[in-house]
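User: For a benchmark we're assembling, each entry needs the component sequences followed by a predicted structure for the full assembly. Here are entry 17's components. Please fill in the structure.
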Amino acid sequence: MTLGNQDRPATGSPSPAGTPTSEPIKAIKLRHPWRIAIAAVLILLLIWFLIDASQREAYGWPNVGKYIFDRRISAAALVTLQLTVYSMIIGVVLGLILAVMRLSPNPVVKSVAWLYLWIFRGTPVYVQLVFWGLFSLIYPKIFLGVPWTDWGVNFDLGFMQNAFIIAIIGLALNEAAYMAEIVRAGLLSVDAGQEEAATALGMSWGQTMTRIVIPQSMRVIIPPTGNEVISMLKTTSLVAAIPLTTDLYGVARDISATTFTPIPLLIVASIWYLLFTSILMVGQYFLEKRFSRGVSARRPDRGEPALVTGALPAAGAPGGNDLGGKG
Amino acid sequence: MSDTILGDRGAAAATTTPMVLAEGVSKSFGSNEVLKSISLSVNQGEVLCIVGPSGSGKSTFLRCINHLERVDAGRLSVDGQLVGYRQHGDKLYELKPKEASKQRREIGMVFQRFNLFPHMTALENVMEAPIRVKGIPRSQAAVRAQELLARVGLGNKADHYPAHLSGGQQQRVAIARALAMDPKLMLFDEPTSALDPELVGEVLDVMKELAASGMTMIVVTHEMGFAREVADELVFMDGGVVVESGDPREVLANPQHQRTQAFLSKVL
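Assistant: Structure for entry 17:
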């Protein structure tokens, strides 16, 4: 090819309108030989590991196959899912309340929320679960009424002996503390001008929050909440502390205690956990898409949505939309 | 009323209550005194333009009028009603949030950065407050919103999200949104300052049309041409005080005060 000879160079001389546009660039793409080399090495290592693992007796692959669809295991997987869903729902609702409390101008309400967060984020969830398991020993029942008289109401706390309920309460109360911080970050990410505009239109504080601020904060709240759901799914394995043993990990352990095959059952449990987290990641992707409505054409994420622990998406950053801001 | 700087607008106006009456309005943020005893009045159907350098307290004054900011001293009333307070004898009582929002819905406000709700379409932006605040049925609010969008020249953009509108279009939607509450007073806080120069005209045209229709308006602006053409009164503020005021054509052509002269020589 002889560049520049066939016509005038594209730059410089102003070509009159209607002339054909300049030729598209056909450059040789930049190569990345090291990427390919490293990827090849990693793939080889993986293949090597898989071949080796398939031949190792300790993994007990026949047992993995035997127990993966065991009725007891799938029932336990359902319990794990229930624990996750129920405690997450309660955790999100409580977290929302706590977040709004922390942002409240009322110092009493603010302090209560702060105290809650201090206690529940400051102690390990395992310890909390042990504590809730012992709760009915400390408070067999609660009497609300006039002190030193018998006027009042007795609350029977018998339900606090049901390990499943204790597990949900324990997990939810701990989760609420973390959700509160996520929701608070979300609410703060919404431009102050939004609240101002709604206020100027005569909307009440409640309307402003539910119609304007909270829907916009969802974009910031959902990615870390997805992480929390995934994290919760795995944290349910700690309910052994209560003790509750009907969840996935608990049942897998129980079976292995009688069959003396701990490793295959650990693999079985891991496969089920992985299945659930994978489904959750897909669901999260679509939720994020839904709540990024109206925010230019930008995708809510770049690749792995669920794995960026705690990182806020670009939503909080300026430039996402130019609607906010008091000048 | 010796403080009142603006003159009467003829005998008829003098007998009626001014739409906005400020008497010695002061406001501080901490030790920073932003407004120092501002006194002025705006009659029904008048357009008042406030100009001045940034930090002169123009925006703060505007925000005081619909009680987005609390006034520290002086009296500020809109249509004869004290803003943010209720008077019983000598004592002032703070209004409950509900009462304050009732006052605000009579006052439309347009912001420099538009502050449209990005998760709603243009139509939904305009419909939101009438539905939630006034309890107007959805279908009725939609018809009215569509009319208002048509009025600001955006009848065909009703389904667009703010992110897909130009700055000028967004600001016109914001004006339609404020008008949807049928305000008796419109406040504009530098409505064209965040716009690309070629988009300023379309917003000013809507505002001119609004002024011609008899809307009472207070406009904080740097658009001297608009002030000259549309305003009944021009106020020049600097350092939290009203330095000079009067007929816009006179003030702009022949500023009396040195600070006004210095400011105008830079912007004109």
